[in-house]
Amino acid sequence: MAAQIIDGKAVSAKVKEEVRQEIEREGLEVGLAVVIVGDDPASRVYVNNKKKACEVCGIKSFEYALPAETTEEELLALVDTLNADKNVNGILVQLPLPKHLNEEKVIERISPMKDVDAFHAANVGKIMIGNYAFLPCTPAGCMELIHSAGIDVSGKECVVIGRSNIVGKPMAMLLLHENGTVTVCHSRTKDLKEVCRRADILVAAVGRAGFVTADMVKDGAVVIDVGINRNAEGKLCGDVCFDEVAEKASYITPVPGGVGPMTIAMLMKNTVMAKRIQSE
Ligand code: GUN
């Protein structure tokens, strides 16, 4: 039986519409600063999409496009300025940064109350404890997709492939908070295929086109594809071999149109949350 496709575009539109209504209803003035350093084409696309989403939701966006040669001092000085700016509720520094800039140092400089990515150690710690204001955007988007399909995580075998700070680790934590039994796989995992085959919910966040094949997927599994890759023909694709896995899964997210739009929708939610925290 073919899997049902979870439509990330539709779910993200709904989340953004809720955010828009909330802002309109309460007459909130919300601002998001997006900082991009250098001219990575993928980062440019993401940043443009974030700006568009801000327009849809009624959030003011302030873009800072800095040259690749920007020094760490200059970038940190901009973060300081944005931290102090009352019109800026959220600050997002698009990653990856050029190699000469220390990402960790830059992230730690962002005020935790404006850290709408939830990358700051203070926010990561709160997520770990389960008492958080901001959810990390991509994992939160995955959870929203899982919920939208009416799937209950409690008691399920959940396998996350990938252990990045941005996706894998926080994803594991959110699944755990909903009482999933969680395994995190990575490049050193033995018998990766066997571990993945146990999964009721399989989350692929590897960054390699076609990494997850049908033989790694249990019949009826829910498959969430976080990957955004280009295949040999230059076509956008996820980490999952979509056609063959869709034959076995019960639910699957497509790429494009799955997790990607959700990340941005959750960013909008976090930005309104930032406004609320700052108004307390
Ligand atoms: N680069 C890839 N994904 C993200 C994200 O969610 N936030 C930021 N700041 N950079 C990214």
**Uncertain runs with pLDDT below 50, 5 residues or more?**
none
CATH superfamily of the largest domain: NAD(P)-binding Rossmann-like Domain
Which structural category fits the helices and strands? alpha/beta
Indicate the mean pLDDT. 97
CATH class of the largest domain: Alpha Beta
Describe the 3D structure.
This protein has helices spanning 8-26, 41-57, 72-84, 103-109, 121-129, 137-148, 168-177, 192-197, 242-246, 259-279; strands at residues 4-5, 31-37, 60-66, 90-93, 157-161, 181-185, 201-204, 222-225, 229-230, 236-237, 251-252. The strands form three sheets. Strands 1-11-8-7-5-6 form a six-stranded parallel beta sheet. It is 42% helix and 16% strand. Helix 1 (8-26) runs parallel beside helix 10 and helix 6 (137-148) packs across helix 10. The chain starts with a strand and ends with a helix. It has two domains: 28-112, Rossmann fold; 136-260, Rossmann fold (3-Layer(aba) Sandwich), CATH 3.40.50.720. The chain is an alpha/beta fold. It is globular, with a radius of gyration of 19 Å. The model has no long low-confidence stretch (mean pLDDT 97). Guanine is lined by residues 92-95, 117, 137-138, 166, 263.
